[in-house]
Amino acid sequence: MTRLTRRAAIGVLGASAAACARTPVRSAFDAAGEKATGVFAHGVASGDPAHDSVVLWSRLTPAAQGPVAVRWEVAETEAFTRLSASGEVTAAPERDFTLKAVAAGLKPGRRYFYRFRAGDAVSPIGRTRTVPDGRLDQARFAVLSCSNYPFGYFNVYDRVAREEGIDAVIHLGDYIYEYGTDGYGGETGKALGRDHEPPTEILTLADYRRRHAQYKADPSTQAMHAAHALIAIWDDHETANNSWKGGSDNHDPSTEGSWEDRKRAALQAYFEWMPVREPAPGAAREALFRAWSWGDLLTLVGLETRLMARSAQIEYNDITPTLTDAEAVRKFRDETLWGADREMLGEAQLNHVAKAMRRSAERGEPWRLIANQIIMAKVTAPNLAPHVTEQDILDLEKEWDQARAFIQFSALGLPTNLDAWDGYPAARERLYDALRKANAEGVIVVTGDTHTWWANNLVARDGVHIGVELGVNSVTSPSPYRKSFLGGKGAEYALLTNQENKDVRYISGEDHGFIDLTLTREEAKARFIAVDTIEAPSYNAFEKAAFTIAKSNGAAQFVDVDGLSLEERALF
Predict the structure, then answer these.
(1) What is the model's pTM?
(2) Of the residues 164, 389, 441, 504, which has the fewest C-beta atoms closer than 10 A?
């Protein structure tokens, strides 16, 4: 490949670069809500921080089709008078002109500013932070999930961008969604003027690239990325709904081609467009699981629960007709659901988690934080049959073709969500066993996927308390526990779920937001921060609930709660 010098890039970028150069450079985190324009129209981002390095990302919008050399710079001050690191990366068509560089040689636990230069064009300035080393008394994370563009404005991202003192943003997946304008969220998108691009469901590399580009063009997305380093794991919608190692329930090979081809395209676009480290040479692109030691305070492990090892989900439409009597239910629960061959993490990832946890215990760190896509706690479905009408079911079937089967299934005392860890209980026990053998005390799991707030106890099959789980509501996607769900009975559904599950301490489907999680040596404080609307770019933010977590006999336990109603507090 021919690489162009920065001097030559001036001519390639043409008038667009010149226009950008005449505009004063602004820090994107000081301009939340303002969209980047010009050569660097998709903003900047950083992620996957380490003690001495961080991934820097941007994209060039060139006036030509050939490769362009772009310089990146890192400094401890926004003035960039003294550079801490710098280098050059090439924007090329084979990577959709995206830019990704690993800025190395940095100091642990420091805040840095960074930017990109192409000729006279200068990107917005971003800021990032490396992972601390040595003695550490506090760490703070913003935890979020499920950002579906047509369902509303990314006000949650905007609020996170305005937060000072965040060490990193942990995104738990569903960063993009694959649907077209006639799919999930399409009607809302039309009403808000936030239609998906391209308008069809995304299948090819060009489709996935265009969808990522749309999300990165959103001003609130840009502000969040420019303000904080990102630690990202994917869930299913980065490929297709309810994906597993061999397919997806939203992929039909007879009309949409090979699943392997689609998955390969989705992952290529993901690694191009996200500030994550590239897989090690020879490693599978699906193996996006990592671990970070945050000083001597905690170890953070990010799981991969979709593409590497997961067995196919059990579908309600398939299983419910077979559950004709008590013996059939018992056999399904004990032999099928609890089958040892129902895999989630796979041996390689489970060994990776165990090793990270053992090292954390040996270092004497007080906390182990697990970034996880899907609900881990045991949640039995409450019997919904007495609470819904035939019309409720018919209305729900318009959104979900398994609605009728699920209502029937809910009367059987089985798990609510077979796509969650409840659908893979033997695999969950293997994880719990690995944590126990590693002496992993102070386990806190943060979870996305359900578009719902949760505070759960994590309890093994033998009754041993493993830790706690914090579930975050979505950036925009709607919750099945919201008031308007099930013909206006969604809040009742949440209440029934809380009442009938002792491990569920709190659940709410109302109000989109993020978890503001602060850990000290003595305790962890999780503040559920919500926004009052996603239907307009103007909003107010508020604290919905707050939970204090401390260790008892080595295990993380909820010890205090604020902001709950009397009814919620009674159930807590």
Answers:
(1) 0.94
(2) 164
